[in-house]
TrEMBL record:
One of its GO terms (molecular function) is catalytic activity. Coiled coil: none annotated. This is Molybdenum cofactor biosysynthesis protein. InterPro entries: MoCF_Sase_C, MOSC_domain, Pyrv_Knase-like_insert_dom_sf. Residues 23-172 form the MOSC domain. It comes from Prosthecodimorpha hirschii. Transmembrane segments: none annotated.
């Protein structure tokens, strides 16, 4: 289901507690500079527990987690059925190669909400704990030894607004040169 044939939101999710999966909701509200209203990972400073231990004053470049529905399709075909929200994403999209977008790409929504992409989600052991064998599907070692992180991207909220399934997603690339996404 793509809005007018272009990229769109398939599902939205949030959780007020630190956990792995998030509850799918009819809509979420983005709050500028903070993240998803009511989500445990929102805030100006880091909220992911491993990062808080390192530096609790560091900026939160991981306010919103986005994941492509195409990845869930691929995982299901490989025997790993995963429901929307189960991997902890806030926004599930379709029709958009999120991983291929450069740093500082802006994603715009019909409500005037805007996200700025900061980097890749770094898949961790929790994914394997969630479903055995899943980590090897979202963290793949390339022939050159580098890692292909496929568990979605992270963003910060630049402009507030609601997001709901069916919303179109408009992509605005930054000025060149484009920087590839790295883990944040």
């Amino acid at each position: 289901m793509e809005a007018d044939g272009g990229p769109c939101v398939i599902a939205v999710a949030s959780s007020p507690v630190h956990g792995f999966s998030k509850a799918v909701l009819p809509r979420i509200a983005l709050v500028a500079g903070l993240g998803v209203a009511g989500d445990a990972h929102g805030g100006e400073t880091v909220k992911h527990r491993s990062r808080v231990r390192v530096d609790p004053t560091a900026p939160n470049w991981r306010q919103v987690h986005l994941l492509a529905a195409e990845l869930l399709d691929e995982l299901a075909a490989a025997g790993h059925p995963v429901a929307p929200g189960a991997l902890g994403e806030n926004i599930l999209t379709r029709g958009l190669d999120l991983i291929a977008l450069p740093v500082d790409t802006r994603l715009l929504f019909p409500s005037w909400a805007a996200l700025r992409i900061t980097g890749l989600r770094n898949p961790c052991r929790q994914i394997e704990d969630f479903q055995a064998g899943l980590l090897d599907r979202v963290l793949v070692r390339r022939p050159d030894g580098s890692l292909d992180r496929r568990a979605g991207i992270m963003a910060v909220v630049e402009a507030a607004g609601p997001i709901a399934p069916g919303d179109a997603v408009r992509v605005v690339l930054p000025e060149p040169p484009h920087r590839p996404l790295e883990r944040v």
